[in-house]
Amino acid sequence: MGQAEQKQNLLQVISGILHTVQSPLYITDYDCNVLLKNKQAGSLIKSIGQKEMRALMIGFTSKLPIGTPTFQEHVPVPSDTETLQLDIRVSRMEGEELLMWSGSDQSAEYRAKEEAKYEKDRAAHAEKMASIGEMAASIVHEIRNPLTIISGQVTLAEEFLARGKMTDEFVEKLITRLNKSTGRINAIIKSLLNISRNTGSEEKQLCSLSEIYEEVELFASMKIKGTTIPLTFDEYNKEQKVYCLPSELSQVLINLVKNAKEEIYQTPKPWFKITTQCLDDCLEIRVVDCGNGIPQSVLDKIFQPYFTTKARGEGTGLGLSLCKKLIEENHQGQFFVDASAPNTTFVISLPHK
To answer: Along the chain (353 residues), what's the average pLDDT of each consecutive run of 10 residues?
Structure first.
């Protein structure tokens, strides 16, 4: 029996096997000419296009080094209706100048993952908006104060101008006061825009830690129930960089600061602070307040979605569960309560890279 006849007999045997396989399966020569295919493979070729499929195969064979029996790769492939997400595998058939191709359409799984990610991002953004909503009264108050100063200074300037008392010294002081007030408003609006934007497409970057802290301090300075509690920072390197999604890290810290203020504002001489420590493999940030820790019964549930110790209507219960997600899933870091600390302490650990 000649070699050509043996090859033909082999193809006939393989042909009987191909149609028992439920996933797309092809047999080609080394030039990627399709010699055999099952029904599923025919459907896939039809949706992609014969020329396009052959071009894809030729590209694959260039990645199959001599001596390597198998090569596999995930490839997005445009079709008539959508982009298919294919896992393609090509293998040399030992002793024959033939290639066996198998394809697995992962489009449904890929869509499910994308939809799940979209829903997670949407939930995170909704919680972010809810958190800003909870601070709305304080934000309005913080903007109203400098606006009142600006209005008063303008009225005073009009009176001085009407009386002919507008001196260079008065104008210099006026400009200084107006610049300070407008700078305060601008800082509040800038911070609001930073933490409110959707971060779905944002990528991690090296950021100035001091700039993030300035943003957090701005929100911390807002009054709660008519009370101002100064936020302090233990000594840290002002040149320290942190590898993060800046708006998300700001959001987590602002949420922790807001929670701390709500818990301690009625205690005698309330205080809270942020400490920073640069370790060998991570940057550790601690948000500490004057509380005596969290009861174990609460600690067991504190990171569960919708769990809250606040009165009805005062919180969504998503804050800490969202913080944990942002740090651990989006930053590959750690977020936890240090139960061994003498005061209530939340810890954020961020890898350097």
So the answer is: 62 69 82 85 82 84 75 80 82 76 82 81 70 68 80 88 85 88 82 65 85 87 73 93 89 88 88 94 95 87 72 54 88 94 95 87
What pTM, to 2 d.p., does this model score? 0.57
What pLDDT does 253 receive?
Answer: 92
Residue 286's pLDDT is: 97
Q: Which residues contact 206 (CB under 8 A, 6 or more apart)?
A: 241, 242, 243
Question: What's the rounded Cα separation, in Å, for the pair 32 and 178?
Answer: 74
Give the DSSP letter string of 50-112.
HHHHHHHHHHHHTTS-TT--EEEEEEEEE-SSSEEEEEEEEEE-TTSSEEEEEEEE-HHHHHH
Distance CA 333, CA 324 (A): 9
| Element spanning 273, H or E | strand 272-278
Burial track 276-297 (b if 16+ CB lie within 10 A, e otherwise): beeeeebbebbbbbbeebbeee
In angstroms, the CA 52 to CA 55 distance is 5
Spell out the domains of the chain, with CATH numbers in brackets: 3-105 (3.30.450.20), 115-351 (3.30.565.10)
The predicted pLDDT at position 316 comes to 43
Q: Is 320 helix (H, G, I), strand (E, B) or coil?
A: helix
* Nearest by Cα to 89 from 106, 70, 108, 63: 70
SS3 assignment, position 35 = strand
